[in-house]
Design goal:
The structure holds two protein chains of two kinds. By secondary structure, chain A is mainly α. Chain A has 14 helices and no strands. In chain A, helix 4 (131-145) packs across helix 5 (161-186) and helix 12 (305-317) packs across helix 13 (321-345). Chain B is an alpha/beta fold. Chain B has one domain: Rossmann fold. Chain B has a six-stranded mixed β-sheet, with helices on both faces. In chain B, strands 2-1-4-5 form a four-stranded antiparallel β-sheet, with helices on one face. The radius of gyration of chain B is 18 Å and the shape is globular. Chain B starts with a strand and ends with a strand. The relative contact order of chain B is 0.17. The interface between A and B is large, with 54 and 74 residues.
Amino acid sequence: MIRTKNGDISSNHDKWEGFDIYDDGDGEATHNSGLYRGYVRKKGLMISLALVVLFVCIILAAHNGPLNISSLDIIRYILTFDNDGMGGVIWNIRMVRIIGAILAGAGLAVAGVVMQCILRNPLASPYTLGISSAAAFGASFAIIFLNAGSSITSIVSISNPYVTTISAFLFSLLATGAILLLTKVTRVSSETMVLAGVAISAMFAAGLSFMQYLATDSQLGNIIMWTFGDLGKATWSWNTLIMAVLLSVTLYFYYKRWDYNAMEAGEETAKGLGVHTERERITGMVLASVLSAVIVSFFGIIAFIGLLGPHIARMIIGSDHRHLIPLSIILGAIILIVADGVGQVILYPSVIPVGIITSMLGGPLFIYLLIRRYGK
Amino acid sequence: MTFFQVNGVEFSYKSTKVLDDISFSIEKDEVTSILGPNGVGKTTLMKCINKILMPHMGSVLIEGSDIHQMSRRDIAKNIGYVSQRGEMSRMTVFDSVLLGRKPHFEWEVTDRDIRLAGRVIHLMGLDDLALKYVTEISGGEYQLVQIARVLVQQPKVILLDEPTNSLDLPNQHMIMHLIRNIAIRNHIAAIMTIHDLNLAIRHSDKFIMMREGTIYATGDHSIITPENIRAVYNIDAFVEKVKGIPVVIPI
């Protein structure tokens, strides 16, 4: 029997004689509502705490580099936006990379959160839905057929990064378009979208292998270098572009937080609550894809952030998107800063691209999360 | 003016006609049960009423306005829907109930929304579960949460698809009793699909018996006859009165 506070079910019927659903009855509701308000405040506090951790990570990451700069100086340079002298080292060399990490981590994580919600699938992410492999295909295409990476010397270099990036971006959009088209001709359901994503991803991966087979040695080197997601490529102009996309897309997602909450309760329930589920699914998918495409086409493949950020956030704060969206963003940023820091430190002075670190650490960490959450 | 009216609704999945010329009307303060065997189109009818599925023909009028001309959100203000298959996620019971206010707020829940949810949670005896995740409560308790949600939605018509599924005997009666009380006190209507004929008879005012996608009979208790049961469910049954209440006993 379901617990009813006031005891026996059958003697309970009378109280509903006066159950007016339009009455917000101050007295009776205060206790529950008070508890709930406290609970919401607690979640706000957790998000603030995560922000503090992010700030600490930024300071620690800003220590990475051949020049020794004291923590106090680093904090001072960062807080005062001072980029003269040593401040210039912090801002123009270290912070540009750290901000790149924050933007990429935040963007991939928020794209992951929304994809998992609208597709009702915990494995949905920019990586699993083929956006990354399409970008890799696009970059390889530019390197091989558009001579974007033709290096005459044996030194591996991408001579025309813009062409590579634009090609990667266009192919990511093509992949998203193909997923949406496939969904449209079948039916706009979450399952068809995920399946279409997996199929598209496999096709681009095959295409990538084929191009690698065709490539010359130096082109092959270029392709492989590109596919390692590397934050060392970060520049202020690209950071600004990513920031602009991230801000506008995130604002939209946050605006739709209650729609996503409704979709968590199931398709029909969401429709019954007035949510245009098909429209939200398509819009969310397009925006999340554009955001991840911008990030991936510039930095290269960074796997697992779109899964790890959201899943850790869900474990900590639950699936209410009012809190889940901000926390995932912060955690995505933290994870990427830490991963990049690890990549800079473990084989010092060589720097390992962050994409390799996230793949290496992401897999085991994800398995751990799975066991913790779903294990007996 | 009729409170709620369904006129000639038709619906097909691909080329199979599921609903054919469904028409009925319902008044305020009434609880209506839609009866019929599995696959007869009861759930499809519920979804067509709420425009979750778009009927190919026909109209649904609430206090004279056609819901097919309304925005989704306006429909949600008028009609609440409790689905048979609600999904659970890591949302608290309180948040899940509060979600029912979705059609009524623009940017964020107001203080009044929180009070309404708090009150319904209290009246349904869910206080102890309020801050638990719905993934941590039982199926029956989640059913109560879904009903609480539709109550804070404050619709004029409540649609419930098998509301007593996964509930034990006392809770089945509690929910049915609650729904009827809500309908009468708030001058709204409730329409539900239900398999338990005796539970339906005990707590409903009106019955719609469906056969092969059409309405076979509508009316009050008096249509629950051995002949109609035979025609709709294809089984033989006695209908006996116990303390004035008809009871169906399958043979």
